[in-house]
Write a structure and sequence with these properties.
single chain, 305 residues, alpha/beta, six-stranded parallel beta sheet, 10 helices, 41% helix, globular
């Protein structure tokens, strides 16, 4: 299997380089080698390597900045996936493209405990969500064999993320205000990378029958929490591992999202029903604390990959 990976230096791309390598020949590109805002470069990369699989882990993810920079976000999140989809179809490759819970709006989904299922109506509340939804649509419209994997609340060992930010702030401040009325599931980049590799291995085994696996899937860890409860868990666990913090768990104050005042609106409900992915590929998705606990233990011990 020849795999072309875009976004190798991001949180998810970093883990995909590890997880995809055993599947075959892997060529990985970052922004310096392949700027997703330049469609000619993308086309040239695909045509020169003619992969069996293209994995697009690159995205414009600065949610608040996208409100004033929507044109660039649109080029990266919408136009680029469309280009990759066209090129993938031309060389008979599969395309794996990652999307987000931000394609949904307010309210509840029709899945388990109000989680969104893949076919629920979308309604993005932000420029980031709109551009990601457009990217999904372009992939589907191309006719390429694809996996669009929606996820959310991603964290990992590499790069900036919520647990690292909370621990840094908890060292600097005696009190933290954290949003308590948005619900979701923290999902580790290494989990996403591993299940992507396993799904691609299943596709390779199915051969001519693999076309039936093409589609949109929701992939997150299991369980649910809020940003506030997530922050408390991170601080409690770090303290248990001996970290020296200025903020105690009871000094993490719940606040409403409306009072936070972020430029871009976030979904109140970021819960994604993963039934379709789990049943289709026969995979279990672990509880969110499993991977969070591993990362916090490393960070509390002084690790900062």
């Amino acid at each position: 299997m020849k795999i072309l990976l875009f976004g190798k230096d991001g949180q998810l791309g970093w883990e995909l380089r590890r997880a995809l390598a055993p599947l075959g020949e892997l060529r990985a590109f970052g922004r310096r080698e392949a700027d997703l805002a330049d469609p000619d470069i993308l086309r040239a990369c695909v045509r020169s390597h003619r992969p069996n699989v293209i994995v697009n882990a690159a995205a414009y993810t600065a949610v608040d900045r996208a409100e004033r920079d929507e044109a660039v976000a649109y080029a990266v999140n919408a136009l680029a996936p469309g280009v990759l989809a066209e090129e993938a179809r031309a060389c008979d490759a599969w395309l794996v493209h990652y999307s987000t819970d931000y394609v949904f709006g307010h309210g509840k989904g029709s899945g388990i405990d109000g989680a969104w299922v893949e076919d629920d109506p979308t309604g993005p509340l932000s420029a980031y969500g709109r551009t990601k939804l457009d990217g999904e649509a372009r992939v589907r419209a191309s006719g390429v064999r694809h996996m669009v994997l929606r996820t959310g609340w991603v964290f990992g060992r590499h790069g900036a993320n919520f647990p690292k930010t909370i621990l840094r702030l908890a060292k600097e401040r005696a009190q933290l205000d954290v949003v308590a009325d948005q619900h979701g599931v923290p999902t580790s980049a290494d989990l996403l990378a591993d299940v992507t590799a396993l799904a691609l291995y299943r596709i390779a085994l199915e051969r001519e029958r693999a076309d039936a696996l093409s589609g949109t899937y929701h992939v997150t860890a299991s369980g649910r929490t809020t940003w506030h409860a997530y922050a408390r868990h991170v601080v409690e666990l770090a303290l248990a591992h001996g970290a020296r913090l200025a903020a105690a768990p009871d000094r993490i104050v719940p606040v409403a999202a409306v009072d936070w005042g972020a430029p871009a609106a976030r979904p109140e409900n970021s819960l994604l029903d993963t039934t379709r992915f789990r049943t289709t590929f026969g995979l279990a998705l672990p509880e969110w604390r499993d991977h969070v606990n591993c990362l916090v233990a490393e960070l509390a011990a002084g690790g900062n990959p």
